[in-house]
Amino acid sequence: xxxxEDSGRRRRRYPEQPREAQQPRRYLLFYKPYDxxxxxxxxxxxxxxxxxxxxxxxxxxxxxxQDSEGLLLLTDDGELAHRLTxxxxxxxxxxxxxxxxxxxxxxxxxxxxxxxxxGVTTAAAxxxxxxxxxxxxxxSTPVRExxxxxxxxxxxxxxxxRKRQIRHMTAAAGHPALRLVRVAIGTLTSRGLAPGxxxxxxxxxxxxxxxxxxxxxxxxxQKSGRTRRRR
Length: 231
Prior knowledge:
Number of domains: 1
CATH architecture: 2-Layer Sandwich
Order of helices and strands: EEEHEHEEEEHEEEH
CATH superfamily: Pseudouridine synthase
């Protein structure tokens, strides 16, 4: 059968069907204050993200406890939220933690190599004791410190996401957490944000995050022995 171009007849043109315009995804960084829920509403009337972020349709990619502070990523991109929280990616999350007492070398080593939490040993973590108090915004409710007990600040990087994991870890090592502030999610940081403030993620920041996720996924794919098709 001859091709339409060779038939000598004028090809009929059909009008293009309009495509539904897709709204661009939103990616927001928010500094969660102390005593605020990582939810957008609460039937009990407690403070939530909705008080601070008047943007509909967002979800939290990795929550913080009510008594913890710091960085949250809010997005309507469900695929990215899944990748940020899925254990296959081992995305590092960085915390500054004030603890009771001065951890010994053995306590720090225990945190680094894994401690037993609810019958399960935590994965290896990066832990260092800070020589100076970090420059953080004051908490709305001051930390209750015992004058007779010294405190220390730790920088902890974990790649798991169990509920209240940092608090369980430091308690298991003999140093309960007094204050906990998340300062980074992968390559995203809380730099420039004050408690209760939010901003859009810059395109270059988002690109850097995606590149880091791809790099983190490779070892997991190789270890599993499976080949994943590219989309």
